[in-house]
Inverse folding.
């Protein structure tokens, strides 16, 4: 077994060597700018880039950030993916802060999202992807996101979604029961799109849902994006 620290340090190089067999021009990873003959299909059905490890939601987020010109100012990124963290750390002209409370992701800080150790109105952009479904006190977390965001700033929020209402039950506590009811051992609820919008609005945000349909996108298939996906843009 190789040391985890060594693997993390040399992961980009290892991936580049491994990804050579996948080189081609049928697909394209917009994160690492690699042409691919195919993506790696995971058991979940997600398409993984062999070169940088990006998932469809990473490539969708990166496309949105670049298309909208939101990569500027001070940015706070919760539980950052390695591929996007590495790209954002290289960008000139932004103050990028990464944080992960559980220690599962490489990050600069270890902020508790329900009590963020930052001043009011500190950030221009917050990225909160696949975090809130892990947080029991999610309303307090949303209040904190609103507090530390600058006026006119945006929080980009995504979780797994279901139809209907939010499903949560505080009596469901074991990893086995959470997997059965919420889809993952460390999830504490499943949001609906409208349910999450309502909670964000109650925290003070103006929320715009961005819903994507791969059938309507010219570049989505080439980038290996999801068939359907929703991102909430919450503006202060």
């Amino acid at each position: 077994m190789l040391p985890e620290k060594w693997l993390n340090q040399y992961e980009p190089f290892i991936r580049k060597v491994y990804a050579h067999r996948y080189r081609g021009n049928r697909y394209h990873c917009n994160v690492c700018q690699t042409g691919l003959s195919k993506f790696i299909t995971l058991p979940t059905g997600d398409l993984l880039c062999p070169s940088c490890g990006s998932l469809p939601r990473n490539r969708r987020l990166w496309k949105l950030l670049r298309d909208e010109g939101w990569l500027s100012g001070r940015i706070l990124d919760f539980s950052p993916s390695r591929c996007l963290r590495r790209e954002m750390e290289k960008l000139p002209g932004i103050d990028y802060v990464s944080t992960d409370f559980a220690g599962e992701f490489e990050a600069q800080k270890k902020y508790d999202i329900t009590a963020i150790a930052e001043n009011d109105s500190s950030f221009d952009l917050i990225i909160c992807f696949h975090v809130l479904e892990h947080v029991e006190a999610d309303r307090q977390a949303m209040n904190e996101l609103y507090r530390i965001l600058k006026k006119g700033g945006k929080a980009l929020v995504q979780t797994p979604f279901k139809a209907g209402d939010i499903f949560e039950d505080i009596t469901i506590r074991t990893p086995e029961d959470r997997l059965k009811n919420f889809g993952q051992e460390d999830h504490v609820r499943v949001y609906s799109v409208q349910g999450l919008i309502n909670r964000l609005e109650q925290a003070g945000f103006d929320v715009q849902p961005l819903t994507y349909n791969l059938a309507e996108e010219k570049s989505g298939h080439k980038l290996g994006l999801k068939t359907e996906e929703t991102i909430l843009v919450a503006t202060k």
Summary: The chain has a mean pLDDT of 91. The helical segments are 4-19, 56-68, 82-90, 138-148, 175-182, 193-202. The longest strand covers residues 149-158. Residues 4-19 form the longest helix (16 residues).
